[in-house]
Amino acid sequence: MQIQVHSDNHIQGSARLADWVSATVTDKFDRYGDDLTRVVVHLADENAHKSGATDKRCHIEARPKGQAPLSVTHKAESLEFALDGALEKLSHALDHHMGKLRAKRAAAQREENIGISHADHLLEEDFLENQMARSA
């Protein structure tokens, strides 16, 4: 899983910030390591130099393999809270998305197994009919 960190002009994008964000994202989504190709984190200060209750914004886009990207945004009074909120939202979205994919795969597998057992049954019937015809 590749992690990219971007920040706007009002947030000083340092290596320390990128390392902290990357480590936090990796810890949270390590279980999806094989399912995600990339996670892109955008950090922004909406009010620039003014302070406010929800002036920090974290937008995260996760790209599951072979699927459309999932995107969430969270605003808070600090970058830490904005990142934590966005990670929590994305975690719920990924759980839901991956759960739906697993359910579809399981249903397809069940249908395939039913089809195979039905085909086996038909072959067995044909075999028994041929055996009876030969012995008669």
Automatic annotation (TrEMBL):
It comes from the Bacteria. InterPro entries: RHF-like, RHF/RaiA. GO terms for cellular component: ribosome. The keyword Plastid does not apply. Keywords: Ribonucleoprotein, Ribosomal protein. This is Sigma 54 modulation protein / S30EA ribosomal protein. It comes from Atopomonas hussainii.
